[in-house]
Amino acid sequence: LPTAVGAHSARELATLMVRDGVLTPFQARMLLDGKTRGFVVAGKYKILDLIATGGMGAVYLCEHTLMRRPVAMKVLPKEQSANPGAVERFLREARAAAALDHPNLVRAFDVDRLPPGNNHCLVMEFVDGVSLQALVDKHGKLPAPRAADYALQACAGLQHAHDAGLIHRDVKPSN
Q: Is 170 among the catalytic positions?
């Protein structure tokens, strides 16, 4: 590899490969931690970064390898993938998201199972930006007109879901 010239350690090589665009920083960290598999999932999604983790799993920034489109992939943890009730809730969320089409809602593209652990995943539209919670944490209280505009947009999406017979149940600024 041309990037290997001048590298005296695995860490230096990883730094050079990130610099040259061969790896993302996330991929380099995974390799340095000894994780060498799972960078491409379901044969078509390349994992680029970890966006967030929570009680219902982790969300990754991925790229659809053929379409070269960024997507968000929510992965149900292994322990929950073994729980039929948790899997059914996850699939119900996926079906609900797939049934909705509104500019203020994230669209669902795909649902799948990922070997080797058969974790379930939901592939969704990637929306680049920060959550309302992160915005407020960074900049403080928003001016009233701006806060009202954001609330109106959220309400429009929630109304669309409600009209389809769905209730969100976890509305908060970080969501």
A: yes
